[in-house]
Amino acid sequence: MSLTQLESSVRAALAAHLDNARRVVLAYSGGIDSELLASILGRLRPEFPSRPFLLIHVNHGLSDNAESWVAHCRRRAELYGLPLTVTKVSVEQGPRVSLEAAAREARYAALNQLLLPGDLLLTAQHKDDQAETLLLALKRGSGPLGLAGMLASQPFAGATMLRPLLGHSRAEVESAAAELGLAHIEDDSNTDLRFDRNFLRHKVLPLMKDRWPGFHHAVHRSAQLCGEQQSLCDELAKEDLRQHQVGSGGLGISGLAALSAPRRNNLVRYWLRKHNQLMPSQVQLQQLAQFWLAREDAQPTLKLGECQLRRFRDALYLVGEAPSLDAELEMMIPRVRQQMANGEHWCLEERAEGERLRLPRAGESVLVRYDLLGTRRVRPANRSGSRPLKKVWQELGVPPWLRGQIPMLFFGDKLVAALGYWLEQEALETLGPGLVPIRQE
Questions:
Q1: Model pTM?
Q2: Which residues have C-beta within 8 Å of that of residue 232, sequence separation ≥ 6?
Q3: Regarding beta strands 329-330 and 366-369, do their DSSP bridges make them parallel or antiparallel, or are they unpaired?
């Protein structure tokens, strides 16, 4: 009976998502869970002839048995009639590195590289895995998002990740595998109690299920309820984001300060998730109070992973590490599309009318430079007099961390334009043909 139920769950998951899918891809370790799922996909493949099926095996290279596991996966994939891709990864190791987390990150990075937009990525987690995930989330002090555990369906790397076995227990998976007589891999690391998940699996959960036999079913139900609560939180945050997001992608400080602390924290977490950033701790959220209370001209910062939360005027911004843009670029004339060091594409187009730059004089190179000193005096066209560059950036509302990334156009040693912002008054042409900087997508 277990096999029939499991097969029905996989069939239903595929049928619900296959219309818009490109390929069906299984993350295939060769362990009993993914072995069963590979076997089921081999059996169901004739029912879905319009989509290619594919297995991907990630070789972490952490076990002496890794190559024999690859050989096992090749044999079984051939038996199931499913194509197999094997990719080898390098897993970061060290005294302060969680090997579990590093292996997971390496595995997901490899899948990210191999998946195509629109793929369905199937993984073989089940109810017992969900119980482990929820207990780990409790250990970390997670909120509803973490306690929602693993979702049956979620976006991943431009694809959709499906967990069609999530409603079934490990016992059901093992029973179905035994019914089919499946050979599978027994990973020697699965009994290593140094890993938190293994400790829960072998020491904690057996005691809990002995005392409460339906524990993993209750956990699955709790995760679903937490998922519903998180959906409500996200709906509220989405509406708040619509109201309080500023045009440049930041969050308006005045609007945030007017919200209750729980609602403000909910919005900040949602906003950070939209940017694929780490979630702030409770202490960090409390530290964010300095952003709401600081003077408008203050610029407090808060480190968050590889990024910083920064305030500029009345907005909160997420700022990544600034790229090094110290290389000069010689621009070509006439119109040639060129990529700047900041990733933008610009060209210089010759025109005989409208606001335009004079043509370069004989011997003048045409260069793009970055990160000019703020004390340098500039004179944007149509403004009275010259002023320090820093003052102009302030008048234009350009945050400090973006100023050094703006391409500055020079003819020889003369600044003639800040691309995307202004042309220099002294470099304008009023009679003959001239040049206009054009940004291209």
A1: 0.75
A2: none
A3: antiparallel
